[in-house]
Specification:
This protein has a single domain (2-230), classed as Rossmann fold, CATH 3.40.50. The protein has a seven-stranded mixed sheet with strand order 3-2-1-4-5-7-6, sandwiched between helices. It is globular and about 45 Å long. The chain contains nine helices and seven strands, in the order H-H-H-H-H-E-H-E-H-E-E-H-E-H-E-E. The protein has helices at 2-12, 15-24, 27-35, 37-47, 59-76, 95-99, 112-121, 160-169, 199-207; strands spanning 81-87, 102-109, 127-131, 143-149, 171-182, 212-219, 223-230. The relative contact order is 0.13. The longest helix is centred in the N-terminal third of the chain and has 18 residues, at 59-76. By secondary structure, it is of the alpha/beta class.
Length: 231
């Protein structure tokens, strides 16, 4: 049922959008554009000129994020954090969820257009939005909670290990890393058919690290949620 719902949501996207996504995710094209960080910023700035391009306000997406945070609360007994960080916040549609669980939040996105919209459309008193590139910049500060959703599969396989190191090093001992990414047929048994890699490749690399303890690893047909604790 989850897969059917997701496919129905995808069909609502304009044909041109679906074609562009398939072309962009061809390995040589993705590698060329993703390794040029100016092109990446330009691409996402264009994306965020379109209202709700990723349909994050759709019923499917809202339910997916509801589940993502219900799972977190269930295993951590609604634990509250001091310093939270969101990597790939987009327009801040889900940042309020993090703000409810943290005293202060720093929310990042590579797109300046996304950040401008987040500040305007989703202002939260304890959240500061800022432009940031997880590939070329080190995450400032030390956090006890980090959330990263639907973001790391926009990197190349070559960029992924350093980006993961960047995320993990920004979390203090006992801190929580909370991940959610869609699954892909390219590296998994179910999911989308357009991503070069997705949840399996990304989450498995976190789970395999000796400095992290896996607290939860939950999978639906179309996405995966992983919660880890820094040792």
């Amino acid at each position: 049922m989850e897969q059917i719902i997701n496919e129905a949501e995808n069909l609502k996207k304009p044909l041109l959008t679906r074609v562009i996504h398939k072309i962009i995710n061809l390995k040589p094209i993705k590698t060329f554009f993703t390794e040029n960080r100016f092109m990446v910023r330009l691409f996402f700035d264009c994306i965020y000129n379109v209202p709700d391009h990723y349909q994050v306000k759709s019923e499917y997406e809202l339910k997916k994020f509801d589940k993502t945070f219900e799972l977190l609360d269930a295993i951590l007994k609604e634990r509250k954090f001091q310093w939270g960080n969101e990597i790939g916040c987009g327009t801040g549609v889900n940042t309020w969820r993090i703000a409810q669980r943290c005293r202060e939040v720093l929310a990042f996105d590579i797109s300046s257009n996304a950040i401008q919209r987040a500040r305007k459309e989703n202002p939260v008193d304890n959240v500061r939005y800022d432009v940031f590139d997880v590939v070329t910049q080190r995450i400032p500060g030390l956090y006890d909670y980090l959330f990263c959703a639907e973001t790391l599969y926009y990197l190349t396989p070559k960029q992924l290990p350093d980006a993961i190191d960047n995320l993990v090093s920004s979390v203090g001992k006992g801190g929580i890393i909370h991940l959610m990414h869609s699954r892909s047929l390219k590296d998994d048994v179910s999911g989308m058919d357009c991503k070069e890699f997705a949840a399996k490749t990304i989450h498995d690399k976190f789970v395999a690290r000796e400095d992290l303890k896996s607290l939860l690893d939950y999978q639906e047909k179309m996405y995966r949620v992983t919660v880890l604790e820094k040792k």
